[in-house]
Amino acid sequence: MKRVIRPVTAASDSFTFQIPVIWKARTVLSVPAHSMKEAIQIVNSHEYELPEGEYVKDSFEIDYDRLES
Questions:
Q1: Low-confidence spans in the chain with pLDDT less than 70
Q2: Domain residues for 14?
Q3: How many domains does the chain have?
Q4: I need a labelling partner for 10 at 20 to 30 A (CA). Which of 17, 22, 35, 42 fits?
Q5: Contact 30/51 with Cβ under 8 angstroms?
Q6: How far is it, in rounded angstroms, from Cα 54 to Cα 6?
Q7: Taking the CB of residue 3, how many other CB atoms lie within 10 A of it?
Q8: CA dihedral 29, 31, 37, 40 (to 10 degrees)
Q9: What pairing do the DSSP bridges indicate for beta strands 21-22 and 61-62?
Q10: Count of CB atoms within 10 A of residue 20's CB?
């Protein structure tokens, strides 16, 4: 779904915009489970909070799918 991006605040002759961005992170989750298959199912179910992770180099970008001027 695209959203029209409008200024959030305006000060004198400049504006502040909220620009949607995305990036990737890399980490390891410790998942209690009875098997690897079950652990993968648990992770794929998104029942875990997002952990701290290591930034994946060169993955930061503007999310143009959600940006419309």
A1: 1-11, 69
A2: 3-68
A3: 1
A4: 22
A5: no
A6: 32
A7: 10
A8: -40
A9: antiparallel
A10: 13
For residue 15, the cross-strand partners are: 10
∠ CA 18-59-44, rounded to 5°: 95
Place of tokens 């298959």: 37
Give the model confidence (pLDDT) of 13-22 as tens digits: 788 888 999 9
CA angle 32, 37, 40 (to 5 degrees): 65
The DSSP-derived string for 3-65 is EE--EEEEETTEEEE---EE--EE-------SSHHHHHHHHHTT-SPPPP-EEPTT--EE-GG
